[in-house]
Write a structure and sequence with these properties.
Number of domains of chain A: 1
EC number (chains A, B, C, D, E, F): 2.7.7.56
Distance between the termini of chain A: 52 Å
Enzyme class (chains A, B, C, D, E, F): transferase
Largest sheet of chain A: 5 strands, mixed
Number of strands of chain A: 9
Shape of chain A: globular
Order of helices and strands of chain A: EEEEHHEHEEHEEH
Strand content of chain A: 25-35%
Protein name (chains A, B, C, D, E, F): Ribonuclease PH
Strand order of the largest sheet of chain A: 1-2-3-5-4
CATH class of chain A: Alpha Beta
Family (chains A, B, C, D, E, F): Belongs to the RNase PH family.
Number of helices of chain A: 5
CATH topology of chain A: Ribosomal Protein S5, domain 2
Pfam families (chains A, B, C, D, E, F): RNase_PH (PF01138), RNase_PH_C (PF03725)
Oligomer: homohexamer
Helix content of chain A: 25-40%
CATH architecture of chain A: 2-Layer Sandwich
CATH superfamily of chain A: GHMP Kinase, N-terminal domain
Chain lengths: ~250, ~250, ~250, ~250, ~250, ~250
């Protein structure tokens, strides 16, 4: 069964990042990966979380949400249900950990940077797209705070990106769309930094188990895709961000 | 004090509606009014709300949310707080009532159309922009359901749009942006149909009271603005919607 | 179809305010409008809301509730459901805004006055009755605080009252009871001050739309009814409140 | 230290029951015990609770609430906090069990009677006043349902009432008001039926413990007070209830 | 109908207390009464509850939970339902009041001792077992805090224990197991101190009422059972607790 | 820095599984890994989750909780906070997925097996201990249901176990205790089946990133530890479970 639009097994869907899609938050990026679209914004809060106050350190956290109209079958609004699902909480914890891996917490003292990832359209890979776009929003926010002399220049200590890989019908493939994801035997999300190291590897065999060699195949595909996405991030970020009036 | 970019007192901010900004929901529109941007989607649920079942009627409802990064000061996410604010509930009740005024509930039997209005960027007038954009999304959803022979042709019985007006420094003006809204003595939201009738008039004197003649002035301004926005809706909707594969 | 007990179109239902129905709160009034009965109490809290602290200003807020046994069909208790409905929140926001229009916030520094409106029996018009009775409770609370030298004499800067009007079978009428309300095409709540100005106008065409001339007719009826209710408030408040031992 | 208004140790506060204080619910009573005022209403729901359906039996339950303005220091509204306190839940469980002791559940098949006890003014003894007034409301509701041929004539199988007793400064006394309750070493609530049997005995030594002879003294006082309150119930209920139009 | 394993009417089920079953909390006891098993732990929190701060006093509180797998029919997890039942809150209030009766709050200044009672297996009598085991955990926690010079030596001012009694088929009996509890006409929980005084008496006639002489019979049985359980507590606590490394 | 009690880098802590520690649920196991103790129970619910009904399939799910007294610093009770943390939800999703990998859902039609993992004492590795002990409880529950002819014999299709591995001070080691976990640069949880395949690999570099060769080292250690734990499971399960009376 060929992939949609004859995509190769190691080929990403067409991907695009629109910088500053909105302009209220300190950083903003609309990332599209195939039909998946995620609006990522990075905002600053003047207070670190309670458990960190007085430590001289700051924090980076993330929140994630599927807009109700982002899916063919409308997904219920968590705000009206009164609680976030386990899936949502698990995803936002992953995004937060990933982004923290490239920020020096002692360089953003007593503040918190919050990266909001709101999925406008969902077609698989929303959590990894959130990390890729979230990094762009976060990077711009940090650079604007540096320009405003709010934080030190060494706050951003690396670059990170993420991609999903999986095994469908016993074949490892890169960047599953939704129709592939529901048929997948194994689903894996990989987050890496620009020095080729892993931040997160989360591989789940929901329908079947997987061998060590399959794991290795998936990690190779992921490395390949992440490298491409980092080029995309770098292209978007090549100019310094425009100053925010605020 | 002149308005931003020397806007006239009876002039709307530059407004734009992007039809089918997303393509999972049955209808979708991204409306921009100045810096305010709202993504409106219309989805169908196969079941009417419980209190209506078996009546042979359907229902139209709306949900509204500010994305956390839509404001200069990040606004907390209601899903993580575990409840929607009174402001949110009040706004979504207004949007729902307004859109129901142009739909024949007996022509959409036993289904529910849900219009989600998610504010990507907030600079005043988000609830009225939601009604204007929500109408476009709803209209497309209804026409697609007609094309799919799911509902009868006479479901959409009118056109509605909305605008805010207010009194700032004793002067009535159309379409307040956020900086005007916070200085306003009186804030009024008006929803009308294309036959020049009112669906909703909500005028609040938060800082001062207002006279009958001020009320009349504001209603005239509103009528003028709504007429313009209806032209915009008609231009966007002039072609029939493209079929959804779903 | 004649009104109950042959009431005229511009006639209020028999209305009565019992001052000091309870005596724990600083002010208390039981208002009856036809069968509708609302117990309004005004209490003082020593702290202004968090967002106002240190500003030298105080605040007035309102809470509203239908007692479960107030309706022929028992209405569920919001405390046991764990959340207040959109209707409740919308109503208490309206009552709070209305009562704030007659209080000088800088004259009640760093305190909060809370007006609780608990509906003992509901037969239409509960939100407007709450405003009428709430004003009496608030006025007594403020005057008692003045007598106790807790706040300055100029805290109360006006008088407000409210009434509902509507269009039933194409006829505008004053003060709808429940049986009229469910048949109404248009329902409007109007809040005014004693100088004939509007605090709030909220007109909703749930079943149909309405023209400008119908709007004007409803506003005239409302002005007439509010004038009567202000006389009733004045009669009740003609003597100074008795001191509270507290 | 003498009691307020030189009340004897075995003397109830002045008590009054106003039947049909409201007229929407099937039964209604406003009970005053000293300054304590509780509005009790009894409503019918057409469905028994889920766990009982199909058993041929019905159920009686109670809900209790302090109105925020019922106390000198305003008590927070549980509906806005989003949960009921342990105290509230404990009290309403007690009221429910007490009232169930006098109803034959098989005589009210597949329905639920809900007794709402809303405290308009709180000065001690609100839970026992709720039982006394709740019985009157429930009795009227049951008799009206019998008149409407909804339930069988033998549904009400007894009469119950309740009173608080306590030990203050080592002295046992009947019917503690709030000022006595806060000083009490031991606080006991007793619920009895008209045949002199106990439904509930709940004695708590919050500040100190108590001996068997002190327990016996308190039970004697309680029996005396309950006998008086049953006479009051009987006087109020001596005529049959007026028919409800509903 | 004889009792399980021919137990006499005034005989407790086999009871056992394992001290220090876990070792993270300051005190820990696993109590078994027949098949009922409750793990009780006592922990210290460095801050008194808000309403007590600055008073120089401390507080003792309790929390109670049924593990979902503790009952033959799995009981839902309250954490996932999002609220604790009325039963849970009522029980933990009882345990807390009981344990506070034997602690001098001024001897544990500005701290809070929390006794957690988690039911691993439920076969009747879980609330009274929690009090018996909770006392052991609390006693060890207090003695360890004394050894660590955190609190004064006179914090523990008594010993308390509890048992259930009831009337089944008109016969009073001690320590009901679950099968007896569901058939019981009257269910009573009694908490006493070692000087033979009552802390709590809670007797409920859910299915029938009870006479004064039946009450007296139940209290005698309870006194007998509590005396035995106090011996068990004393045996377990005869040696001083081993030091905690923490 | 040597490990506690000179444990080797590839050595598990002393581990023990007590089968049938409680006897109400269909399966029960108390697992100890070092000081970590988790009580796992498996219960049956007669209905599959709503989304599965009518499919002829069943479901296996898990719930996880830390008892408040399981940690040196008392952890707050999620039931009283009213929501489960993201950590809790993430862990119980992991346990559920892992256990589902060894059950054939079509062999347990229209029922749900719930595995509750309640941590009595927490010293690192609670989620992996929950999987190891949860498998034992689940296996016994399934075998008892087979004995009761409730489900088919082929429901259990494999064996699974789990362990944590990590990198501390640049050294990979097996089965981190809490003191190691807080110092770890990388933390990884691995779930495998008895045929040497992976169910889950979750590796997180919270403090630093990790290379492919470090990943491989950790996976080797995990395979070694899991093999030992599977022997332990097999030893415990070598006899068939005793019948449950229920």
């Amino acid at each position: 069964m060929p992939r949609f639009q004859d995509r190769a097994l190691d080929e990403l869907r067409p991907s695009l990042i629109e910088r500053d899609f909105t302009q209220m938050a300190l950083g903003s990026a609309l990332i599209s990966v195939g039909k998946t679209k995620v609006l990522c914004t990075a905002s600053m809060e003047d207070r670190a979380p309670a458990w960190l106050r007085g430590s001289g350190k700051g924090w980076v956290t993330a929140e994630y949400s599927l807009l109700p109209g982002s899916t063919p079958e409308r997904s219920g609004r968590e705000a009206s249900k009164g609680k976030q699902s386990g899936r949502t909480l698990e995803i936002q914890r992953l995004i937060g950990r990933s982004l923290r891996s490239v920020v020096d917490m002692s360089a953003i003292p007593e503040i918190q940077l919050v990266v909001d990832c709101d999925v406008l359209q969902a077609d698989g890979g929303t959590r990894t797209a959130s990390i890729v776009g979230g990094f762009v929003a976060l990077s711009d926010a940090i650079n604007r705070l540096i320009d405003m002399n709010r934080i030190s220049k060494r706050a951003l200590i690396g670059q990170c990106a993420a991609v999903s890989v999986g095994i469908v019908d016993e074949i490892a493939m890169l960047d599953l769309d939704y129709s592939e994801d529901v048929r997948a035997d194994v689903d894996m999300n990989v987050v890496m930094t620009s020095d080729g190291k892993f931040v997160e590897v989360q591989g789940t065999g929901e329908r079947t188990t997987y061998s060590k060699s399959q794991l290795d195949d998936m990690l190779s595909l992921a490395e390949h895709g992440i490298s491409y996405l980092m080029d995309l991030q770098n292209a978007v970020l090549s100019d310094p961000p425009k100053p925010r009036s605020k």
